[in-house]
């Protein structure tokens, strides 16, 4: 019985220990479960906060996408406005092209008219030289005739010479009348040309008013675009560059106006030259009148002398035969000496004329050398322009390849390329016009120098008899020197213009702006796609964590 009791006590003790161990193990597992539950609760809270943050980011992305859509719509509207502005600028350029063509035609007409006037003036100068020489010869003959009339005994011979001189004077007068009529016709032509220049100035003033109104409209549109904010930044740059191009055209128009004013000044100078020629004609008319009066006086003196000689001849015929013969011989010898002296003076004048012709040929040679230098500069400029054109084509091809991604940018890029080609053509025409105007100035200065040389030669041939003639010759030399200096300055100025003239680079900015906008839009779309993928990954991670 004790043994059974012992066994029962031992069994209960083991059961109690086993139960205690099981309770401790269960308590341990329960603590572990509680810790695991707390950890899971913390993870759930963290995932909830993360889900809330992701939801807020998703809402921000949705709002950002809406803003981008609105910005895209606004840019589309702004692009349409820019396209309308480009169309308006194209119309302005076409109108300016028409004005330039009209002015080119007028300039060509003015050039042909100026050449015709210069040719006629040259012919008039030649005629005047011939007439002046004839008048000088007639003056010498008249002086010799007056000297011979004092000693002449035959009235018939003196009468014949007087009639011949009278006929020659009448012929000179008739020719001078013809020259005066031609000069009057030239003056009428110049008046017509001045009226045409005034009409051109009026048309240019009207064109400036229209251009000013269009500039005000463009400024108003630019102000409206600036009110739209930073969304229209790229378009505003395009409008600004188009305005710069318009300003360049306006400056070209102002230069054309200045050149027209200079042409008008040249026309006024030619008119003054014609007036000077008219004054010279009047002076020569006066000289002819003086010669006619002197001829009449000589004839009256001859008649009175013939009467006196007839009265004295009857009384002292025998006594004066020998003396008259001696006087005639002496006078004849004196006349021969004077004639030889006159021939020597004529030879000196001819040598002076040859020197002047040599100087004129030298000036022509210098002008030819300058023209040759200008042609060489033009060839070098064309080579440089070809290189620049190749670089521009290469740059344009790169820009075109870069802008192919933007489907809405191609029409604008094509249109801007057309405007660039048109601008290059206008600049080339401007260079040609500048060269033509420079050539016109040089020809006018050379004609004025030739005219001064002709006047100076006439004065030297006729002889500097009075102080007024000497003063006039000095004035002509000073004017000729001033004209030569001015011709030199004009030639240097034209050379400098040809060397400095380089056309501006083409406006490729619109294509770059369009490409930039397209790349920016693709970057924003890529950024939105990356955020959306990240959000999907976070949602999948959160779902896995929750599970």
What is the terminal-to-terminal distance? 62 Å
What order do the helices and strands follow? HHHHHH
Give the uncertain stretches in residue-range form: 229-233, 504-547
The class by helix and strand makeup works out as mainly alpha
| Rg, Cα atoms, Å | 52 Å
Specify the biggest β-sheet: none
Gross morphology is: rod-shaped
Mean pLDDT: 68
The residue fraction in helices comes out at: over 70%
How many E-type strands?
0
- Report the portion of residues in β strands: under 5%
Helix segment tally: 6
Structure notes:
With 547 residues, the protein is an all-alpha fold. It has a domain at 170-219 and 278-301. 95% of the residues lie in helices and 0% in strands. It contains six helices and no strands. The protein has helices at residues 2-151, 155-227, 233-403, 410-462, 467-500, 509-546. Helix 2 (155-227) crosses helix 3. It is rod-shaped, with a radius of gyration of 52 Å. The model is unreliable at 229-233 and 504-547 (pLDDT under 50).
């Amino acid at each position: 019985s004790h043994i059974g009791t012992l066994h029962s006590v031992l069994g209960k003790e083991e059961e109690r220990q086993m139960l205690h161990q099981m309770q401790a193990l269960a308590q341990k597992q329960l603590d572990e479960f509680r810790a695991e539950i707390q950890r899971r609760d913390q993870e759930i809270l963290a995932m909830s906060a993360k889900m809330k943050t992701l939801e807020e980011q998703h809402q921000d992305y949705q709002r950002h996408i809406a803003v981008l859509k609105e910005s895209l719509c606004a840019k589309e509207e702004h692009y349409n406005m820019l396209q309308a502005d480009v169309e308006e600028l194209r119309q302005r350029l076409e109108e300016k092209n028409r004005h330039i063509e009209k002015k080119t035609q007028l300039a060509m007409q003015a050039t042909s008219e100026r050449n015709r006037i210069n040719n006629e003036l040259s012919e008039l100068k030649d005629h005047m030289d011939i007439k002046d020489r004839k008048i000088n010869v007639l003056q010498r003959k008249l002086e010799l005739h007056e000297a011979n009339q004092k000693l002449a005994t035959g009235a018939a011979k003196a009468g014949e010479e007087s009639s011949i001189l009278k006929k020659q004077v009448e012929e000179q007068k008739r020719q001078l009348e013809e020259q005066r009529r031609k000069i009057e016709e030239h003056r009428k032509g110049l008046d017509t040309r001045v009226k045409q220049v005034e009409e051109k100035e009026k048309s240019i003033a009207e064109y400036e008013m229209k251009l000013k109104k269009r500039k005000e409209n463009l400024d108003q549109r630019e102000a409206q675009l600036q009110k739209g904010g930073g969304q229209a930044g790229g378009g505003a740059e395009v409008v600004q560059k188009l305005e710069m191009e318009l300003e360049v055209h306006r400056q070209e128009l102002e230069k054309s106006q200045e050149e027209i004013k200079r042409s008008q000044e040249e026309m006024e100078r030619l008119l003054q030259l014609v007036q000077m020629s008219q004054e010279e004609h009047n002076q020569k008319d006066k000289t002819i009148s003086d010669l006619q009066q002197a001829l009449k006086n000589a004839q009256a003196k001859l008649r009175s002398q013939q009467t006196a000689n007839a009265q004295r001849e009857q009384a002292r015929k025998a006594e004066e035969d020998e003396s008259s013969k001696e006087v005639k011989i002496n006078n004849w010898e004196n006349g021969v000496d004077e004639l030889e002296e006159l021939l020597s003076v004529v030879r000196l004048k001819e040598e002076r004329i040859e020197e002047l012709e040599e100087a004129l040929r030298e000036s022509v040679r210098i002008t030819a050398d300058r023209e040759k230098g200008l042609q060489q500069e033009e060839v070098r400029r064309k080579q440089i322009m070809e290189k620049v054109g190749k670089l521009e084509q290469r740059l344009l091809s790169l820009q075109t390849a870069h802008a192919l991604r933007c489907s809405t940018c191609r029409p604008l890029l094509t249109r801007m390329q057309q405007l660039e080609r048109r601008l290059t053509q206008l600049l080339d025409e401007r260079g040609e016009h500048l060269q033509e105007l420079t050539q016109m100035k040089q020809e006018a200065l050379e004609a004025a120098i030739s005219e001064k040389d002709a006047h100076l030669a006439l004065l030297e041939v006729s002889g500097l008899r009075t102080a007024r003639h000497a003063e006039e010759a000095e004035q002509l030399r000073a004017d000729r020197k001033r004209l030569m200096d001015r011709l030199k300055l004009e030639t240097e100025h034209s050379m400098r213009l040809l060397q400095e003239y380089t056309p501006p680079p083409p406006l490729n900015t619109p294509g770059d702006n369009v490409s930039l906008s397209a790349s920016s839009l693709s970057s924003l779309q890529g950024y939105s796609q990356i955020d959306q993928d990240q959000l999907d990954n976070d949602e999948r991670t959160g779902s896995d964590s929750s599970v």
